[in-house]
Design brief:
376 residues, mainly alpha, 69% helix, globular, Acyltransferase 3 domain-containing protein, membrane, Acyl_transf_3_dom
Length: 376
């Protein structure tokens, strides 16, 4: 999304989501993990996956909103331009991280080889497909794998639902096959329900963006129309669902299998609760929106992708024996490194946008696609 069109409160949510992942992964450190086990602080380690689910919805919403605006402005949608933008946003930071891991692995510092590199680079770490090898250092790319699979599906779905055009069969079939990999070769802790939630949140983002375009909601700063009297109670209800500790849900299970099943099925509520919470937090003029839109939070949110990638390294097995202070200091150094590299990341994203604009259809003489209404 271009700077002029950004919804800064969503970047604030990205910061909240990455903090949830941090809190979870810091528990891998022996000292911090022991602290979690013997104190109420342990509850904060239960929200790592919740943070990723929030990322999924925001990604689906922001990507869809940008493409809907492109279609409204040009009368068409270029899948090639879309993939170029996504490539320069996602691939360079990932390759920088994976190349560093490969160098550390070659030096014997960490356990990492070409099989791990290939599995992450091919976006397969959300599956147990034959030949896939994903250890801790790339285990978190399960979320990038779902995102890449959504991007493969997106042009076909967009053509069908936004442009009222039938997608081409072979590309659509290939995209569906790729997206089905995690559902066929399922990782136990994601589960088939987790696959459903991931795709549902991405496409909930698409539907929310489509609704926003129809109602010009970016001007109203929310894609949900809820009266002021109901907004806060609905938000509280959604927040209660999203942030209910898993330990509370599991307490109703008679054994470990029942506890796991309860948590898995409960997560389905995220499909409605996460979009509701995120979108209602963007209501115009509210204190929560102002908080989430603070300049420093918005900036950190935009830099959160690389931070998400690199935090996995400093929480890896080679560093788990550090004392708590050293572990947190190492995390701070990694975050600082990512923030220093962010301007380069932005330049690459800008180059991708410039390149994609050459492939976008000119607006002159084109008919506005059906299903998109834009206020004037």
């Amino acid at each position: 999304m271009r700077a002029a069109d950004r919804l800064d409160y969503l970047d604030g949510w990205r910061v909240a989501a990455i903090l949830m992942v941090f809190a979870d992964h810091l528990g891998m450190n022996h000292a911090i993990g022991a602290l979690y086990e013997k104190s109420p602080l342990g509850v904060i380690a239960q929200y790592g996956e919740t943070g990723v689910f929030i990322f999924f919805f925001i990604s689906g919403y922001v990507v869809s909103l940008g493409c809907l605006k492109e279609a409204a402005a040009t009368g068409d949608f270029s899948a090639r331009a879309f993939y170029i933008r996504r490539f320069f946003r996602i691939v360079p930071p990932l390759m920088a991280y994976l190349t560093t891991l490969l160098a550390l692995g070659s030096a014997g510092v960490i356990d990492f080889g070409w099989d791990h590199f290939a599995s992450a680079a091919l976006y397969l770490c959300n599956s147990t497909a034959p030949g896939v090898a994903c250890n801790w250092y790339v285990g978190h790319t399960w979320s990038l794998a779902f995102e890449a699979q959504f991007y493969f599906l997106f042009p076909a779905v967009f053509a069908w639902l936004a442009l009222d055009r039938a997608p081409r069969f072979l590309p659509a079939a290939a995209a569906v096959a790729f997206a089905a990999v995690p559902a066929v070769f399922t990782i136990w802790w994601i589960g088939k329900i987790g696959c459903v939630i991931a795709y549902a949140l991405f496409f909930a983002g698409f539907l929310a963006a489509k609704h926003s375009i129809r109602r010009d909601a970016p001007r109203a700063l929310t894609a949900l129309r809820v009266s002021d009297g109901w907004r806060i109670p609905v938000m509280i209800g959604a927040a209660t669902i999203v942030f209910m500790p898993r330990s509370v849900i599991a307490s109703f299970g008679a054994d470990e299998a029942a506890k796991g099943a309860l948590i898995a099925w409960y997560r389905l509520l995220y499909i409605g609760a996460v979009p509701t919470l995120v979108l209602l937090s963007g209501a115009a003029g509210t204190a929560l929106r102002r908080l989430l839109s603070l300049g420093v939070l918005a900036w950190l949110g935009r830099a959160s992708y690389s931070v998400y990638l690199w935090q996995q390294l400093c929480n890896g097995p080679v560093f788990n024996g550090l004392d708590a202070g050293s572990q947190i200091a190492l995390m701070g150094v990694v975050i600082l490194f990512c923030l220093m590299m962010f301007p380069l990341e932005q330049r690459l994203v800008g180059y991708g946008r410039a390149l994609s604009r050459r492939l976008e259809s000119p607006a002159a003489g084109r008919v506005q696609p059906p299903g998109i209404l834009v206020s004037t």
